[in-house]
Design goal:
The chain is α+β, with helices and mostly antiparallel strands and 505 residues long. It contains 13 helices and 20 strands. It binds zinc ion.
């Protein structure tokens, strides 16, 4: 059993909660915080719609500093501009130059698909230094907002029991095959940090949605998150920083992601998210609160051997290829016949009076022609649907093959991941490096003893998608279950660890 191979090391750092704050706050019951952002847009990579940022909120109690970083990038390592050495190199520099232990540095990717500068490590360190140079005593408060208009679960349940996901990489199935949709989590987790004079210093917010809607001009963009953060920053005190922490968005897409009738735009979606976050921010009352704690644990998770699943998909591909049948039509004749039979199912080939003449003269020439054409259209359509299935199968099998090759090359059947649990006042956060799907996030929230518990994927590394055991049964059918290197045992292992860590906060 893979589960038996699991091993985990444990590293615990719990900040002192009771010692007087001797650094910058006159009052022992307050924390200090500083915020900064730096534009990391690669302006040489093509047209830019809106800037991408690295943002930092540094929070300090009497003894230690915790640093929260968000990057408008697709992931912390593995894919996109941020390389795998970013996290260790950046943390090492923060430790040597600022004395901040690596385990107190948390970095989350917003998962927007924008293009950032290659020297992201330097910019991150610079932003952290700037935040720390502006530390000021803060009052804090936490609360939840809600937004359910801008996203949808991207997994569609089909009548045959399989699941398909909504991607641009391939077609959706025929409408009549779709039986249901999955759940979404509308909760926005909010931490508000105010200066002692009552002005807002920063808002940290957590929500789950792939920020991949794009902008009509196709230019570089921070997508939904860029717009949401701008709305928050523009409507609070001058200089307020809005720092986003991406949630369990593995199976969550923007609404109308496949729209072909309107220019797709992240702007209205981001504005709605920003406004809903502001609504929650305004209800939060900030108080002196010096509770700051962070746990950091390395968890060893099992990898899957995907060889059998790949062989199954190879066999399915052969079956589908065998289903392709020759028809008399080509695309041109198919399109015109399809249209005519839809426009006038009774009299597709000519005006109705000619059919009446046929009847009077006891002929069925037109009816026979229509019957032949209907059959040919159906056969051609079946080939189209088979082609759509093949494109889905090939795209998802390529992901499975990639992860199988990587596993074989690595010579390892496990992968180490960093899990952190953080408390800032009433705001409790659990982080994980993969693209967690919404049921996992809701399980963790549901099992937490703390009211205001939020979950951030895409944090401190990147291990691709992390679907539930149930979603994994669909392997090969959707990106989330195919672009995944974990074995099903990972979920219980992770959720148990998360619950234990949350209890300790
Ligand atoms: Zn993703």
């Amino acid at each position: 059993m893979l589960a038996r191979l699991l091993r985990f090391s444990f590293c615990l750092v719990l900040f002192s909660l009771t010692m007087p704050n001797s650094v910058s706050a006159a009052d022992a019951s307050t924390l200090s915080a500083g915020a900064a952002k730096i534009d990391i847009t690669d302006y040489s990579a093509g047209p830019v719609n809106d800037p991408l940022y690295v943002k930092v909120v540094a929070i300090k109690d009497d003894s230690l500093t915790t640093v929260l970083i968000s990057v408008d990038a697709v992931a912390i390592g593995e894919i996109g501009r941020i390389k795998n050495d970013y996290l260790p190199t950046m943390r090492k520099r923060l430790e040597s130059e600022l004395g901040i232990p690596p385990s107190h540095v948390l970095v989350n990717a917003s998962h927007c698909h924008g293009v950032i500068l290659p020297d992201i490590t330097d910019h991150t360190v610079r932003a952290v230094k700037e935040a720390i140079s502006h530390m000021t005593p803060v009052r804090i408060g936490a609360g939840s907002g809600s937004e359910n208009r801008i996203m949808e679960n991207r997994r569609l349940k089909l009548k045959n029991g399989q699941e398909i996901d909504v991607r641009h990489a391939y077609s959706l199935p025929p409408d009549e095959e779709v039986a249901g949709v999955g759940a979404t989590d509308p909760e926005i987790g909010v931490l508000r940090l105010d200066r002692e004079n009552g002005e807002t210093l920063a808002v940290i917010y957590n929500f789950a949605c792939h920020p991949i809607q794009g902008v009509p001009n196709g230019a570089n963009t921070a997508d939904i998150i860029g717009y949401a953060s701008q709305v928050i920053e523009d409507n609070l005190s001058e200089g307020t920083l809005a720092l986003f922490l991406q949630g369990c968005a593995g199976d969550i897409n923007p609404a109308y992601y496949k729209d072909v009738d309107h220019p797709r735009s992240a702007e209205p979606l981001g504005n709605l998210l920003g406004l809903s976050t502001l609504k929650a921010v305004r209800q939060i009352e900030c108080k002196p609160d010096n509770r700051l704690a962070m746990l950091n644990q390395t968890l060893t998770l099992p990898r899957s051997d995907l060889a059998d699943k790949i062989a199954e998909l190879d066999a399915e591909e052969r079956r589908l290829l065998g289903n392709l049948q020759g028809t008399t039509l080509n695309f041109k004749t198919f399109m015109s016949l399809m249209l005519k039979h839809k426009l006038s199912p009774e009299f597709p080939s000519y005006y109705s009076h000619r059919y009446l003449y046929d009847e009077v003269q006891e002929r069925s020439d037109l009816r026979s022609l229509d019957a032949q054409n209907r059959k040919a259209v159906q056969a051609y359509l079946q080939n189209v649907f088979t082609m759509e299935k093949l494109t889905r199968l090939q795209a998802n099998r390529a992901l499975l093959r990639k992860h199988q090759t990587n596993m074989v090359d690595s010579g390892k059947r496990t992968i180490d991941v960093e899990v952190t649990a953080l408390r800032i006042g009433d705001f409790v956060l659990l982080t994980f490096p993969g693209e967690l799907t919404s049921p996992v996030g809701m399980n963790i929230k549901g099992n937490s003893p703390h009211d205001l518990t939020y979950v951030a994927g895409y944090t401190n590394g990147y291990i691709y998608y992390c679907p539930t055991v149930e979603q994994m049964q669909n392997r090969g059918g959707a990106q989330e279950d195919s672009d995944c290197l974990l074995a099903p045992e990972w979920q219980e292992k992770f959720e148990t660890t998360a619950a234990e860590m949350l209890k300790q906060l």
